[in-house]
């Protein structure tokens, strides 16, 4: 060891960045339980093959467009779930909280009631509702120390009660406001779609190469540049492919606005989680709250903020769901599988239930898988019973995988 | 008191109870710039509790903490850090899910005005600091701490404490999990920090190590002061007796030397 010449060390360092070495390291990581996005990729391919074999409608442009609208609500809610899971907590209120926000947005735009605000104001009020509920729940968890499981279970019931109370007599509020209905139903023109794909690619490349050159200038290991290019090209390709497919859809060709909203929120939340001090502290609290506290991090504040994010995302998801149906009813407000779908999406996307591990993008991939399954089951014409059983089974599988992998990582770790 | 150099950090009559357990009873303690003060005592003597009181993890029930001769109140870890008090905890206090750089800068991340992390300088400084401490066995500063060995984790915890410009550094059994070479490094580091003018407090059960680096030795027993010994005027035998039996002076709480 001591005889190693500087040149050899240099060579070893460069060797670390070679494709072969990266593949080897990746394989070793997978074997030790750090599977990354592998289960998601396998899942997406398997589900596509399965449903395509069952029905010819599944693999069509119009169904892809439809899928985007279908998965948008749960995916946005799942973004909030990611944050909550990252600090090692759970938020069970998000289902009915999303319903409550749907009720709020419908209520505040209702014509001829004295509270018929413009669409965007109604939207802001709905999201504010989610933030207030999140703040309340988060404060109880952070200051009093009641387990989040119980606090948000109470929150679930209270939200459900409020929905019943507000919708009670009528049972339904329709949404006439164009701005609100556009959230889930507007379709971008094909050319706007292309423009979006181009902007996305430019931003992606700027981020990736910006960080590459930043590190290079600082004399830090940069990773393999070919791999960076491949990664950027891959995601840019996905964006262009998605736009292309949506532009083929009949009768209304184009990318749904809501798809853009979802991607925007995922990127924004991913940025907050991965690139800001707040995000770093979220991971720290989930990894070791006591260590975070000793490092001077305001753990209570982080917890409260995370529940506020969860509330805001649940509300946004609820608005999307209400917008999609042009109204809100007792049947659609937060019930059914919304709660489990959103939590499943995050967990399937690789976010650990045990805190501190996972990425925001997991919500998108998990949401895609959950959405594809629900969509496929509807198309094939299986009953709701099958849908419930499948969703449950998939959640169970994802949680089991998470637990097994965590044990495996712990075993390999030390 | 007039002739002696002033203490950088001083505890006067500090008490701390956990319910009915009296972890610290009217404890006096001090450390001066440029010295290594060893803090020894049997298991449960209150050494870690004393450190956590100074670090702002626990609030004290009674007594006073003075910094540069002025009374200070330390309400949380931030206050302690602001005074320049740095601690390597016995249980290390690392986040397993974060990587080495992230742990080194935890709670004090380099960022720009809009809260964006500045990773490059953090990574550079981490690599430099580890190198200056001769921590060479860590392959990448971007690997999660969970993948490190016990000794490597300890090295990270020590490195984290010296990354900042401090006045006082507490090390709670920093060599407990270390191999021979790494122990050597940490002891050398302790000496070097004191030479740089810092006040260093070393908690250790290894009296050989203590006698090698310490200038003075404070002994705690069952949460009480036994006494402070000049290294040159005592020996291991006396310290062992103080740790296990205490001294007559300490049997009467009212008597303070
Ligand atoms: N958080 C706590 N809650 C209740 N009792 C505590 C707590 N922390 C410490 N104690 C008690 O205070 C006493 C002193 O503990 P402390 O950890 O300070 O000992 P120590 O001198 O560091 O011992 P060791 O050498 O084993 O690390 C012990 O009796 C312990 O049981
Ligand atoms: Mg201790």
Oligomer state equals heterodimer
Proper CATH architecture of the domain at 9-92 and 166-251 in chain B: 3-Layer(aba) Sandwich
Number of helices of chain A: 17
Strand content of chain A is under 5%
Which word captures the global form of chain B?
Answer: globular
Can you list the ligands bound to this structure?
adenosine-5'-triphosphate, magnesium ion
Kindly identify the CATH topology of the domain at 9-92 and 166-251 in chain B: Rossmann fold
Radius of gyration of chain B: 19 Å
DSSP E strands of chain B, number: 10
Gap between N and C termini of chain A, in Å?
23 Å
CATH class wording of chain A: Mainly Alpha
Computed over alpha carbons, the radius of gyration of chain A is: 23 Å
Topology as H/E string of chain B?
EEEHEEHEHHHEHEHEEHH
Could you characterize what this model shows?
The complex is a heterodimer of chains A (414) and B (257). Chain A is an all-alpha fold. Chain A has a single domain (38-186, 256-412), classed as ABC transporter involved in vitamin B12 uptake, BtuC (Orthogonal Bundle). Chain A has helices at 6-16, 19-31, 38-54, 61-86, 94-107, 119-144, 148-167, 178-185, 190-217, 225-248, 257-275, 277-287, 289-294, 299-324, 338-348, 361-380, 384-413, and strands spanning 172-174, 327-329. Chain A has a two-stranded antiparallel sheet. In chain A, helix 16 (361-380) packs antiparallel against helix 17. The longest helix of chain A is centred in the C-terminal third of the chain and has 30 residues, at 384-413. The model of chain B is unreliable at 249-257 (pLDDT under 50). In chain B, strand 7 (168-172), helix 6 and strand 8 (199-203) form a beta-alpha-beta unit. The radius of gyration of chain B is 19 Å and the shape is globular. A six-stranded mixed beta sheet of chain B has the order 6-7-8-3-9-10, sandwiched between helices. Chain B has a four-stranded antiparallel beta sheet with strand order 2-1-4-5, covered by helices on one side. Chain B is built from nine helices and ten strands. Chain B is of the alpha/beta class and 257 residues long. Chain B has a domain at 9-92 and 166-251: P-loop containing nucleotide triphosphate hydrolases (Rossmann fold, 3-Layer(aba) Sandwich). The longest helix of chain B is centred in the last third of the chain and has 16 residues, at 180-195. Chain B has helices at 47-55, 77-83, 100-104, 119-132, 150-162, 180-195, 207-213, 236-245, 248-251, and strands at residues 9-18, 21-31, 36-40, 62-67, 70-72, 85-88, 168-172, 199-203, 216-221, 224-230. The interface between A and B is large, with 35 and 36 residues. Adenosine-5'-triphosphate binds at residues 18, 21, 23, 41, 43-49, 90 of chain B. The site of adenosine-5'-triphosphate has 12 residues of chain B, from strand 2 and helix 1.
